[in-house]
Amino acid sequence: MVALQRWCRVTVVGPDGAVVACCELDGPRSPGLGAVDDVARLALLATRLGGGITLAEVSPAMRELVELAGLCVEMEGQVELGEKPLGIQQGEEEIHPGDPPP
After folding, report:
1. Confidence of residue 98 (pLDDT cuts 50, 70, 90)
2. How many CB atoms are closer than 10 A to CB 58?
3. What distance in Å separates the CA atoms of residue 101 and residue 27, rounded to the nearest whole number?
4. How far, in Å, CA of 14 to CA of 49, rounded?
5. Rounded Cα gap, residues 24 and 85, in angstroms
6. What are the contacts of 76-85 at 24+ separation with CB within 8 A?
7. Could you tell me how far CA 55 lies from the centroid of its own chain?
8. H or E stretch including 40?
9. Rounded to the nearest 10 degrees, how much is the dihedral formed by the CA atoms of 83, 58, 24, 30?
10. Which SS3 state, helix, strand or coil, does residue 78 take?
11. Which of 5, 44, 48, 86 has the greatest number of CB atoms lying within 10 Å of its CB?
12. pTM tops 0.85, yes or no
């Protein structure tokens, strides 16, 4: 049996700050982009529901991948790079002459 390496612990919090769920991300090898995708999807879902996520006990490899991917999630109580935790940003699209109608 292969021993699993813990990459991080994810805590999902609701709009009121109450813990909704906790899970551990781990695997037989170092984390890859699939693990970062899992974190991003959890963060997106939590944000859509008005909450957010925090990561704790983050392995150095996982921290590096999350930072490399540019995810702004709270890790061990600190928001990375002084930014807000991952959320949905809205923007407006420019309309150019000759573009089909929306």
Report:
1. confident
2. 22
3. 47
4. 7
5. 19
6. 85/43, 85/52, 85/53
7. 8
8. helix 33-48
9. 120
10. strand
11. 86
12. no
d(CA 70, CA 13) in angstroms, rounded, equals 21
**Model pLDDT for residues 56-95, shown as the tens digit of each residue:** 999 999 999 999 998 878 887 554 444 444 443 334 556 6
Amino acid occupying residue 1: M
60's tokens: 């150095």
Question: Per the structure block, which two tokens stand in for 50?
Answer: 């008005």
Q: Both tokens of residue 97?
A: 């002459």
Tens of pLDDT, residues 36-53:
999 999 999 999 999 999
Take residue 71 and report the two structure tokens written for it.
């995810």
Under 8 Å between Cβ of 7 and 61: yes
